[in-house]
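Narrative of accomplishments. A recurring question from our advisory board has been how the design workflow behaves on a single, concrete structure rather than in aggregate. To address it, we present the structure tokens for one chain from the evaluation set, followed by the sequence designed for it. No filtering or post-editing was applied between the two.
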């Protein structure tokens, strides 16, 4: 559609946000995997792990996160329902620390 509707200069401008989005998704996925490997696997499970083992653990963590994401996305009935579920989870995660401060537990 874009190839026929826009001249060549504007096609690049129209496709640039898609490439940017792909880069952001890839960056966040790699960051999650590195946090899991460095902060959980290396610190608590295998402190003596070498670089090669950490790389393989990172591969496994990336595959795990991709699988979980695919499972969640294929299990959802609508994007509105998924967005509501995500916002509810974020709201609970942010509100629990606030309740402890308000109630004087902290």
């Amino acid at each position: 559609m874009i190839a026929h509707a826009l001249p060549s200069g504007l096609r690049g401008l129209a496709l640039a946000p898609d490439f940017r989005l792909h880069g952001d998704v890839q960056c966040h996925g790699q960051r999650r995997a590195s946090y899991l490997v460095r902060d959980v696997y290396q610190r608590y499970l295998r402190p003596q792990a070498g670089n090669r083992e950490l790389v393989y653990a990172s591969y496994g963590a990336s595959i795990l996160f991709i699988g979980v994401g695919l499972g969640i996305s294929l299990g959802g009935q609508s994007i509105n329902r998924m967005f509501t579920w995500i916002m509810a989870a974020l709201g609970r995660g942010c509100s629990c620390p606030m309740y402890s401060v308000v109630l004087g537990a902290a």
